Amino acid sequence: MEHPMSPQLLVSTGPLLLSPLEWVLDAVADAGFTGAELLVAHNPQTRDPARIAACAQQAGLTVPVIHGPYMLLLRNVLGAGYVEKTRRSLELAAEVGARTMVAHAPFRWERGARDWLAAEADDEADGIGAALGMENLFPVGGHAWSAVVTPGELAAFRHVVFDTSHFAVAGVDLFAAWDAVGDRVVHLHVSDNFGNGKDSHAPIGSGILPLEAFLGHVGASGYRGTITLEVDCRAYLDSRGSLVEFLAGERTKAEALLAADTTTARPASTPAAG
Questions:
Q1: Distance between CA 242 and CA 236 in Å, rounded?
Q2: DSSP bridge partners of 187
Q3: Is residue 58 part of a domain?
Q4: CB–CB of 165/202 below 8 Å?
Q5: Which of 77, 103, 190, 229 lies at a C-alpha separation of 20 to 30 Å from 258?
C-alpha cells in the first residue's frame, strides 16, 4: 500500500455528524487540513459516494479514510449484521477512493463474524479495493466486550488502526503497543485522554498521555500512513470561526510534534487510566 511522503493529517467528521457534510468539510479545509476521515452515519450524505466526492472536491479535500458505522448509536446503519455492515462499508470506501475503512471488532460472542474476519475479510477487502483497518477498543464497565482490546489481539490483523485514547482507557502503554503492532499500522486516531476511565478524545496536551514523545517517535519511525486528529470539538459548534481556530491549533500541535527532535528519552510507561 502506497502512502504520501509524510503522514497526512486528517480530521474526523464524527463529532460533527449532525452538521451538513459540505459545512463540515469546508471548515476542515479552512483549518488547513488536506483531508478528512468520514464517519458513515444516519445522515444520508455520508452514505452517498457521489455526494461525498462532490463535497470533498468543493472543499479541496481528499477522503482517504472511511470509518464504518460500528458505534451503538449507528448499529442499524448499513445493516445490523456485522459482516453485511463491514462489506457495505468497504464498498463505500472503495467507491469514494478511500484507502482504508476503519472497523471495530465484533463482540467476543459473535463467533461467526470473528471467523469471517480471520479467514475471509482481508481477501474480500482486497477484491473490493480498500483495506480493512482494525481499530483497538477498550473495556467498558470492567468488561472487554470487544474482541480486540490488547496489542496482542490487534496484532492478528493485517492492517491496524491505532487509537491512543482507547489504549489509555485500556491501561496500555502507547510505546509498548507501537512496538507490538507498529509495522501493521496503516492509520492512527490521535487524541489525549483525561485518565478518568472514559474515551475522552481530549485535545493534544490536555491529558495524561505522553503524546509529545509518542508523536515524535511515530514521526521518526518513518511512518507514512494517515493520522486522524479525533478530538472532541462539540464545544465549538456554535461558532464556525472558533471551530476552525480550534482544529487549526490541533493540527499545528500535531505537525510540530511529528517533526520534533526525539533524542529525549521516552517515558517509561503511559499513565494508566483511573
A1: 6
A2: 161, 226
A3: yes
A4: yes
A5: 103
- 239: which 3 cell numbers? 461558532
Q: Please state, in angstroms and rounded to a whole number, the distance separating the CA atoms of residues 121 and 77.
A: 19
Q: Are 102 and 161 in contact (CB under 8 A)?
A: yes
Predicted confidence (pLDDT) per residue in 121-160, tens digit: 999 999 999 999 999 999 887 778 888 889 999 999 999 9
pLDDT digits over 220-231, tens only? Answer: 999 999 999 999
Q: What is the pLDDT of residue 146?
A: 87
Counted residue by residue, the chain has a size of 274
Buried b (16+ CB within 10 A) or exposed e, 85-117: bbbbbbbbbbbbbbbbbbbbbbeeebeebbebb
| Adjacent-strand bridge partners of 227 | 9, 188
| pTM exceeding 0.90 | yes
Question: Per the domain annotation, does 252 fall within a domain?
Answer: yes
50: domain CATH number? 3.20.20.150
Extract the C-alpha cell encoding 188. 492512527
* Residue 63 binned pLDDT confidence (cut-offs 50, 70, 90): very high
